[in-house]
Amino acid sequence: MTELVHSAVDNGVLTLTLDSPKNRNALGETLVAQLLAGLHGAESDTSVRSVVLTHTGGTFCAGADLSEALTKGVSVEEASSIGTSAMLDLMRTIMELPKPVIAKVNGHVRAGGLGLLGASDMAFGGPDCTFALTESRLGLAPSVISLTLLPKLTARASGRYFLTGETFDPATAVAVGLLTETTDSAAGLDDLVAAVLAGVRKASPQGLAASKALTTAGHLADFTRYARQRAGESAELFASPEAREGMTAFLSKTRPSWDLSSS
């Protein structure tokens, strides 16, 4: 099996690197399985104090990749359901892990990639980051990833970017709560994360677990309460005529019938 997620441990820190740049580190079955294996391994490994989630290439994560499921002969709707289930599993695993998960990104982040940032305890970004929630332009909504994004974003930010699909930069991402902090260089990002990890390494495993639980308890309760509802909404939207038109237009680089913009 091709290794799409690389694991490396350094002085108590497990780094999980998404390495599928050809499809923009999209969340296909293989990548998700390897990422989950890495996260579960971190939970059971007492030598691991924290996890850093990062990437190769110019995109951190572009969201779901349904191609692997579709090649097995399932319908588009079934493939979407598989992707939704995988996304829920990933976000819940990150939030429930009794060790801090730190996202380190310096590239484009879209769709499910933003869900991973929302699930992470801290998220740091470099100057090459861009962010966008473009689901509404496809006849969809960021239903499932809203479970981790709404607790982190300001109400005004979600009210804008969920609806418009605009692209925003790292400074805006910090201002609205998506990123913890940003830097103006890749080297600066390395230094920033290194400084944060130095602090994490001073903390006891018990102290980290208990402190993280304080910050995630309420979010996890809402996650559990609404996950099935959000998944159902996503499936209903995905199967709709508008979504089919939106996705067809996106893939063919044409404009859907509802696009009234001048560009």
Major sheet strand order: 1-2-3-5-7-10
- N- to C-terminal separation? 43 Å
CATH topology: 2-enoyl-CoA Hydratase, Chain A, domain 1
Under the CATH scheme, which class? Alpha Beta
Sheet bearing the most strands, described? Answer: 6 strands, mixed
Comma- or semicolon-separated keywords:
263 residues, alpha/beta, four-stranded mixed β-sheet, 10 helices
Describe the structure.
With 263 residues, the chain is of the alpha/beta class. It has ten helices and ten strands. The strands form two sheets. A six-stranded mixed sheet has the order 1-2-3-5-7-10, sandwiched between helices. Helix 1 packs parallel to helix 3 (76-96), helix 3 (76-96) packs parallel to helix 4 (112-119) and helix 3 (76-96) packs antiparallel against helix 9 (205-238). The longest helix is centred in the C-terminal third of the chain and has 34 residues, at 205-238. The protein is globular. The termini are far apart.
